[in-house]
Every structure is written in structure tokens, then in C-alpha cells.
Design a protein that fits this description.
With about 600 residues, the protein is α+β, with helices and mostly antiparallel strands. It contains 15 helices and 31 strands. Helix 1 crosses helix 11. The protein binds one RNA strand of 76 nucleotides through helix 13 and helix 14.
Length: about 600
RNA sequence: CGGGGUGUAGCGCAGUUGGCAGCGCACCGCGUUUGGGACGCGGGGGUCGGCGGUUCAAGUCCGCCCACCCCGACCA
């Protein structure tokens, strides 16, 4: 590609809305342009990156038996009604009507589309297992897109769906994906770890997320350096340490004005926060016999800990949780800020598993400005449910080896999920087994966000001058810079020949043949960030050479003219090999021990 | 949806007390220049986010709306 013909331009300054560094460089270098909040055009340079990533995705998916197909972006509402998600998914799903007023949706994921295909095609156990995938546009009307390509509304996703006759088959395909995903990220040069994640209520047994550790990430991960335990905070377990039990003491009401928070209370009574009980009110959407209803829930935690809403939702098998409104709390007879489960009825009480092991806690008295001392679970109140409700924090004990956990932020660039038969059953995806029995297809789903991956790569690979994407995903391999003034056409002529020779040798070349000053050309080369730069100028030609430079290094070396092509090829091969070795796949660190 | 911020040329920004809409970069033409974002001369480009109001006069004051960014809620 000649830069004189390139569609995009580099920008000297990034637009003000480009906040994160990697994204600002993607914009300045001309890889992407934003059109609206969370909606982007991918320019030719970015498109080449995307195509390289997609080639890697196809390669690795095909290697584990994947068959590529293509499912529509616009889907009929009927199939979403069949699974119920037409009703349960909110406004993040874009809905539209066709000219005949039929309901349509923009696909935010493709389980329903897969279900519809599978029930038409799969009849026999002889047609299983199968693995299908596509690389397709998704639209999710996210309430808050942010950070450039990291969180968007329209995006391209590789999603694959495994179809098996039983759970053993699913397990095999799940593991195959687990390995394939590490291969993919390694080939792209993105360091990731796998963490255990929430399976929600879709009946899935197991789910992992592939995380790029970076402060820009929106997920908090808890990691153990000594045994490799790794989990999203939503599901992270940890070793809880009960305080030593004390002899039970008499309930005692104390006047505690202005102590609406645990901190105030502990300070006022001169006790530690772990000697208090905290009541958190949540309204849960529950399902019973297919009937949906709302219920006020009081979650009781030790005062020094925090509620993990995902754990609570899972413990309750709730569809949904939201903070309770003040009027709902008051209607239950509790007083916000001074609430307690003692002598309270009509509320679903869920206590953290630490509470039965904690004695003589201070809890609310359900009366403004009063608390109760020496509240004890079992004696003074009971619960509908005892469960792990506490959010793990940095420094908490690893649930496997008790070493202190570390907390880090991460971006979810991929996930793998054992769906089971939830969708098959909802949509009638069945097959006959060897015995003639009709059984539901066991499914798994596996996603990688392509644009988000590019966003992460830009964060991982840049410096002040610009991008420096790994050779496997860089839009071109060689940036050929021709310098030269009006007095001599010699450098440009030679560069033209070299351009042809490099391409003839199979290399991907971006040729800066513009009539720009050297500074402009070098700065653009740094900004676009191709791994290899070759400069031809009258100065280099004088001593029969060209100048060779790697983006990741500062030294420039002269190269005899006749060796330029061979040297560039071998350097690119070396960079590819080095990239593959740089990112180590360590199953233990990756969380493979979890299953 | 709540809180905060910003909208002036393609990008970055200035615009005072309400009084001719500007600067740098980018772009076009001519010439000079060519190893780290060159220089000279000449040019083109504006619904000052939109609508309404106040005023002799609005980029500037008032009201409503919209878009974008950040924080939170949210995230199949």
C-alpha cells in the first residue's frame, strides 16, 4: 500500500473525547473513527488488523473442529419469545418492526439463532458432536459505552456454539476451547489469564472469562500468586475467619443517635466493625412455578464485610436484584440505618455464613437512634437461608491455600460457558440417542470480542510515539520510507524497486512515497507503528545501503542493498517466533486447576 | 436513569463589558526545502450543537432540547 493513496490521515492531536492512551493512538494513526457513542467505523489500517485477528480465530476454531457459518444480525422476535428473553432482557436489546409490523431484534448474541438452526438440522446422535461458529456483528444498547473500543454498542464477535449428546462431550469441547483461546491470545500477543466467572441462572455448570489485566478494565479479579486461584470478584470465594466465640450475653437496647453507618456505630460504641451486623435491603425478582414476583430481602453480613450481589442473587436463584426503596423498607417495619432481623416478619432474611459463627453482635433495634447489643443468630432470630454473601477483597485468604489474595482490574476479552440444555429445552433442540430416547442437545457458548481485543492490544502495545502492535496483527509488516528531495529522484526510484521486491517476497509493505519532510514520515511511521522500518535516502544510497530499524528498538542499522529483502523476511520470522514464546501459557496460573 | 463536564473550520483551542468570528495544525495553488512534525507568498473552508426568547445588536444573556466525555446505576 502506498501512503500517497491511503484513505486515512494521521492526526497530530487526538480528539478530546479519546481518553485512554491506546485508543487515542488508534484514532491518531487512522485505524478507527467514532461515529456515535459506542459506534465505530474501522478504517483500512484497523480493518487489516481485524482481518488478521479473524484469520487467527478461524485457524484456531477450525483446528478444534469448528465449522464457520453466518447467522443473521436481524432476528425475528419469535425465537426470543420462545426462550423468554424477549421479555427478560431490557432496553439493551434493540427492537424494531418491519413494514408489516412484525417484531424484530438486532442480535445481541446468537443462542436463539443457533437453537433455531439446530432444531431443524440435528435429529440423531450420529450428528453429534458438532461445533459451529461465526464472526458477526452484535448490537447491545449499553447504557454506558466507554474507553474507546473497550466497551461499545456495536461490535464484531467470534461466537462459537458446541453441540453434544451429553455433558462429557461438552466437557471435551469446553476444554478444547480453553486451550484454543490461549493459543489465539498468544498468537495475537495479548497476555491474558482465565478466571472462574459467574454462570448465572442459565443452568450452566462452568464458565471462565479470559482477562487482560489492565487498570482500564471494569472487572475486579482476585488472584492468588501462590496457588494460581483466579476468579472474578462476582464469584470469588475466600477463607473466612470467624472471631472466637464468646459466651452469649443478654440482649440490651442502647441509645445510638446519629449512627446510620457501621463506621459511625463502631466509633460511637468504641467497638470493632466486626462486632456489628449489617443489614442490606434488596428487592429481588424471584420465580416460583414459572410465576415471577418481587420480594424484599434483608441480607445480614458482619459489619466489616461487603455484600456481593452476584452471590446473593445466586443464593436466592433470583432473576434480578435491585436496591430496595425506602418505602419498601419502611413498609416491612424496619427502620433504615437501624434495621435488624430481630422481631421482624414478612421479610426474606438471608445471612452470610459467617454470622452463625459470630456472637454478641450489635445490630439495629428497628427503632430510630437505637441498636441492640448481644444479638445472636439462632437465639434471637433465624434466617430463611444461610449462604456465602460476602465480597472478597484484596488481602482476604485464598480459598485454596490461604495465602493473601491480590485484587486486579481486568478487561474481559473472551469467555467460555457451559450452557447445558437450557436453550435446547426452551427451543426444542432434541435428538434421538442410541436407544431411541429423545434428549436435549447439550450446548456450550464461547465468545471473543474482536474490537475489544484490538482495544486491549492498543493499550498493551504503545509508547508516547504511537502504536507498536505485535507483528502478527500489525496492519503491515514493513514500513518503507523513501526520503529525497527534488534534486535527486534516486532514493524514490530505488524505494520503488525495493517496494516491489519486498512484496514479491511475500511481505506486507506500507510504502511512504509521499512528498513529505523526513520528520513527518518518521513520526507517522512511529505512530502507525509497524514492526519493521526500512529507510531509503540519498545518504544511505551513498554507501550502498538502506537503513533498518525495528519499532520496538531505537538502534538503526545500515544494511547492504542486496540484503534488504532477505533480512526483512528473516527479522519478521524472528519476531513472530519471539512473540509466540514471549507469552507463556501456564495452566496453573491460568486457573486451569479449577476443573 | 442520577451527578459532573464540554459543544466555535477536519483536529486542538482563544473569543474581554453584548458591538465586523479568530489562532495553531491540517487542506488548496506557486516557489524554495528534504534524516525526526521545514519556509515564503497567495487562498479555500463557519447554521459559533439546535430551537425559541431578551435586545437597536447575541458566539457571549435567559429557557428548552440534542450530542459527546467522565463518575455512578446498569451490563445477555
Amino acid at each position: 500500500m502506498r501512503m500517497s493513496l491511503l484513505f486515512s490521515q494521521t492526526l497530530r492531536e487526538a480528539p478530546a473525547e479519546a481518553q485512554s492512551e491506546g485508543y487515542a493512538h488508534l484514532v491518531r494513526a487512522g485505524y478507527v473513527r467514532q461515529m456515535a457513542t459506542g459506534i465505530f467505523s474501522i478504517l483500512p489500517l484497523g480493518k487489516r488488523v481485524q482481518q488478521k485477528i479473524e484469520a487467527i480465530l478461524r485457524d484456531e476454531m477450525n483446528a478444534i473442529g469448528g465449522q464457520e457459518l453466518s447467522m443473521p444480525v436481524v432476528l425475528p422476535a419469535e425465537i426470543w419469545k420462545e426462550t423468554g428473553r424477549w421479555y427478560s432482557v431490557g432496553s439493551e436489546m434493540a427492537r424494531l418492526k418491519d413494514r408489516n409490523q412484525r417484531d424484530l431484534v438486532l442480535a445481541m448474541t446468537h443462542e436463539e439463532a443457533v437453537g433455531d438452526l439446530v432444531r431443524r438440522e440435528i435429529r440423531s446422535h450420529r450428528q453429534l458432536p458438532r461445533l459451529i461458529y461465526h464472526i458477526q456483528t452484535k448490537f447491545r444498547d449499553d447504557p454506558r459505552p466507554r474507553a474507546g473500543l473497550i466497551r461499545v454498542r456495536e461490535f464484531t464477535m467470534k461466537d462459537s456454539y458446541s453441540l453434544d449428546a451429553g455433558w462429557e462431550g461438552l466437557e471435551r469441547q469446553y476444554r478444547a476451547h480453553y486451550q484454543a483461546y490461549f493459543n489465539i491470545f498468544r498468537r495475537c500477543g495479548l497476555p491474558v489469564i482465565a478466571v472462574a466467572s459467574d454462570t448465572g441462572m442459565m443452568g450452566g455448570k462452568l464458565s471462565h472469562e479470559f482477562m487482560f489485566l489492565h487498570p482500564i478494565g471494569e472487572d475486579t479479579l482476585l488472584l492468588c500468586a501462590s496457588c494460581g486461584y483466579a476468579a472474578n470478584r462476582q464469584v470469588a470465594r475466600f477463607g473466612k475467619q470467624p472471631e472466637p466465640a464468646q459466651p452469649l450475653m443478654e440482649l440490651e437496647k442502647v441509645h445510638t443517635p446519629q449512627t446510620k453507618t457501621i463506621q459511625d456505630l463502631a466509633h460511637f460504641l468504641r467497638i470493632a466493625e466486626h462486632q456489628t451486623a449489617k443489614a442490606v435491603f434488596i428487592t429481588a425478582r424471584l420465580v416460583d412455578n414459572g410465576e415471577e414476583y418481587e420480594r424484599l430481602v434483608m441480607a445480614i453480613l458482619r459489619g466489616d464485610t461487603e455484600l456481593n450481589e452476584t452471590k446473593l442473587a445466586n443464593a436466592l436463584k433470583a432473576r434480578d436484584l435491585r436496591p430496595a426503596r425506602e418505602d419498601e423498607i419502611l413498609a416491612s417495619g424496619a427502620v433504615p440505618g437501624f434495621a435488624s432481623p430481630v422481631d421482624l416478619s414478612g421479610v426474606l432474611v438471608v445471612v452470610d455464613e459467617l454470622i452463625p459463627h459470630s456472637t454478641n453482635l450489635v445490630a439495629g433495634a428497628n427503632e430510630a437512634d437505637y441498636h441492640l447489643r448481644n444479638v445472636n443468630y439462632g437465639r434471637d432470630y433465624t434466617a430463611n437461608l444461610v449462604a456465602d454473601l460476602t465480597a472478597a477483597r484484596a488481602g482476604d485468604a485464598c480459598p485454596q491455600c490461604a495465602a493473601p489474595l491480590r485484587a486486579e482490574r481486568g478487561v474481559e476479552v473472551g469467555n467460555i460457558f457451559q450452557l447445558g440444555s437450557w436453550y435446547s429445552q426452551a427451543m426444542g433442540c432434541t435428538f434421538q440417542d442410541e436407544d431411541g430416547q429423545v434428549r436435549p442437545v447439550i450446548m456450550g457458548s464461547y465468545g471473543i470480542g474482536v474490537g475489544r481485543l484490538i482495544g486491549c492490544l492498543a493499550e498493551a502495545y504503545h509508547d508516547e510515539q504511537g502504536l507498536k502492535l505485535p507483528v502478527s496483527v500489525a496492519p503491515f509488516q514493513v514500513h518503507l520510507v523513501a526520503l529525497g528531495g527534488k534534486h535527486s529522484s534516486q532514493p524514490l526510484d530505488y524505494a520503488e524497486r525495493l517496494y516491489n521486491d519486498l512484496q514479491a517476497a511475500g511481505l506486507e509493505v506500507l510504502f511512504d512515497d509521499r512528498a513529505e519532510s523526513p520528520g513527518v514520515k518518521f513520526n507517522d511511521a512511529d505512530l502507525i507503528g509497524l514492526p519493521v522500518r526500512i529507510t531509503v535516502s540519498s545518504r544511505t544510497l551513498e554507501n550502498g545501503s538502506v537503513e533498518f530499524k525495528l519499532r520496538e528498538q531505537t538502534d538503526r542499522t545500515p544494511l547492504p542493498l542486496d540484503q534488504a529483502v532477505v533480512h526483512a523476511s528473516s527479522e519478521i520470522n524472528r519476531l513472530l517466533a519471539e512473540l509466540y514464546n514471549r507469552i507463556k501459557f501456564d495452566p496453573a496460573l491460568a486457573g486451569f486447576l479449577d476443573f
